């Protein structure tokens, strides 16, 4: 059986609904100390998404990590995200966390995430307080990705690698942990259907929209399940 077709423009895929029936994570659970306690003593929970289905390539699955950076701002925690460079082979132009594939010298997934964040956005490793990791997520491009969650204290001095990243921006964690902002898309095709989440973010009415979808949205949804459990 052939794999389902790739999605190149997720914005045109019909929206089946939002998840406003699910409660937002309470603001009290989104504070640095509360997150430290949650990761130190995790509840019983299950991730909602483990991957994008069957791989679309013949590549051997490879380990990778991303950093889920939570920036401590005066109005609460913000998630630092990047827009990948349009020239990249995989996931070009998409919204993602800083990260990439594991290298032989990396001691563990945390080391991979911190190294990649340093290379992509110039984040100093000692500026990140690693809280813990979420379950791995398998992408359509044959990466098995471990999300590593960390707290960052401002000021942040970022240096974007233009070969990897076109932009970096922040989204309030409270916004992303509110399922009313989670859109469900369903694409019908001959032989089946594909479903995915999106979490569009527009920092100001006149600003361009950042369309968070796919693996990044799925990992954020897993973070929601972890914090809401």
Which shape, going by the Cα principal axes?
globular
Our count of helices gives 4
Q: What's the total number of strands?
A: 11
Structural class: alpha+beta
* Second-tier CATH architecture: Alpha-Beta Complex
Distance between the termini: 37 Å
SSE order in H/E notation? EHEEEEHEEEEHEEH
Hey, roughly how much beta strand do the residues contain? Answer: 25-35%
Estimated helix fraction: 10-25%
Please compute the radius of gyration using only Cα atoms.
17 Å
Given as residue ranges, the uncertain stretches (5+ residues, pLDDT < 50) are none
CATH class: Alpha Beta
- What's the mean pLDDT score? 90
According to CATH, what is the topology? Nucleoside Triphosphate Pyrophosphohydrolase
Can you walk me through this structure?
- With 229 residues, this protein is α+β, with helices and mostly antiparallel strands.
- It has a single domain (14-228), classed as Nucleoside Triphosphate Pyrophosphohydrolase, CATH 3.90.79.
- It has 4 helices and 11 strands.
- The strands form 2 sheets. Strands 2, 3, 4, 5, 6, 7, 8 and 9 form an 8-stranded mixed β-sheet that branches. Strands 1-10-11 form a 3-stranded antiparallel β-sheet.
- A hairpin with a 2-residue loop joins strand 2 (62-73) and strand 3.
- The longest helix is centred in the last third of the chain and has 15 residues, at 214-228.
- The protein is globular.
- The relative contact order is 0.25.
- The model has no long low-confidence stretch (mean pLDDT 90).
């Amino acid at each position: 059986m052939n794999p389902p077709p790739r999605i190149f423009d997720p914005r045109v895929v019909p929206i089946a609904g939002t998840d406003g029936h699910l409660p937002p994570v309470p603001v009290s659970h989104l504070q640095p100390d509360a997150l430290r306690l949650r990761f130190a003593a995790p509840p019983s929970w299950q991730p909602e998404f483990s991957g994008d289905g069957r791989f679309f390539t013949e590549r051997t699955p490879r380990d990778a990590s991303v950093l889920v950076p939570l920036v401590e701002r005066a109005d609460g925690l913000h998630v630092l995200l990047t827009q990948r460079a349009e020239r990249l082979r995989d996931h070009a132009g998409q919204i993602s966390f800083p990260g990439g594939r594991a290298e032989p010298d990396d001691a563990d997934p945390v080391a991979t995430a911190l190294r990649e964040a340093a290379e992509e956005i110039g984040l100093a490793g000692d500026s990140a307080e690693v809280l813990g990791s979420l379950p791995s997520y398998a992408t359509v491009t044959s990466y098995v990705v471990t999300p590593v969650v960390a707290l960052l204290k401002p000021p942040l001095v970022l240096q974007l690698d233009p070969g990897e990243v076109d932009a970096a921006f922040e989204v309030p964690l409270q916004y992303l942990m509110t399922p009313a902002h989670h859109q469900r898309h369903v694409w019908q095709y001959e032989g089946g259907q594909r479903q995915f989440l999106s979490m569009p973010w527009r920092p100001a009415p006149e600003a361009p929209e950042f369309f968070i979808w796919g693996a990044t949205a799925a990992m954020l949804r897993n973070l929601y399940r972890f914090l809401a459990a």
